[in-house]
Amino acid sequence: MKARLFLQRATVSSLLALILLASFVYMGVNPGMLFTEFHYVVDLAGSMSPPHFSLLWMDKTIAFSVLETLSMAFLGTLAGGMLAVGCALLTAKDTMPYPWIRGIARFMVSLVRVIPSLVMVLIFVVTVGLGAFAGMLTLVLSTMGTFGQLFTEVIEATEKAPAEAIFSVGATRWQVIRFGILPQVLPSLTANFFYAFDVNVRSAVGLGIFGGGGVGFQLFLAMRVLHYRDAFALICVIVLLIVLTEKLSDGLRRRLIGRGRHRQHTKLH
């Protein structure tokens, strides 16, 4: 038995090693280049130092681009989150009794979720042009696809007893959703909205490099014209922006989730 187990593990390990080696050969990966070409990284770091921080208050468009990135993330989160909630209500068995409507809604959410964000932004750049609007539309769809499935699972995991009790006294389906399901899922949905905003701020910076506008597009322009000190200053702004957004999002989610647990604890006692 032990010999058979050893043979299975050795076969799996050998196959993984062969796949890894074949991938390295196919991609032309040469680990030695990390050392022989490292001087280019040192040269780039020298070209970027010191960062040109005075650019941040000399160029008025920088502050505008930061606000543009935050606006993209906020509007993308709000619109995408609302669409995700709507799709979840159409997809969950607890809120939608018709299987064919659930199937259509589930297909739409799955279709949006499998399209990469970079492909979406390229499509929107072609259709609506360069700028923040293309980035915002991309965030709307990506948020809907990502959180639509998550919200469906949250709704289906709710306790059935409150909804069944309301339904048994003659309430309509909407009243069951309004008074039996939404109060249970609202803290989780709101906490996920804050998390989605945190994720979308990072995504908005990346989408800007591909034509989505905002501070990411400013970084792309600085790198393209070889203004590396300007680029380093913009990278510092982006890092600070993401750290502050993450701290704010984490703090609000902890407070919200803690308040929800406190309410549950109060009800139990």
TrEMBL record:
Q: Where in the cell is it found?
A: Cell membrane
Q: Please report the stretch or stretches of sequence annotated as the ABC transmembrane type-1 domain.
A: 66-249
Which terms are listed as keywords in the entry?
Cell membrane, Membrane, Transmembrane, Transmembrane helix, Transport
Q: Which GO terms describe its molecular function?
A: ABC-type phosphonate transporter activity
Q: How does it sit in the membrane?
A: Multi-pass membrane protein
The GO cellular component terms are: plasma membrane
* Record field: transmembrane: 62-90, 111-141, 176-197, 204-225, 231-249
Family to which this protein belongs: Belongs to the binding-protein-dependent transport system permease family.
Looking up NCBIfam families in the UniProt record yields: PhnE
Q: Write down what this protein is called.
A: Phosphonate transport system permease protein
Q: Which organism is it from?
A: Dinghuibacter silviterrae
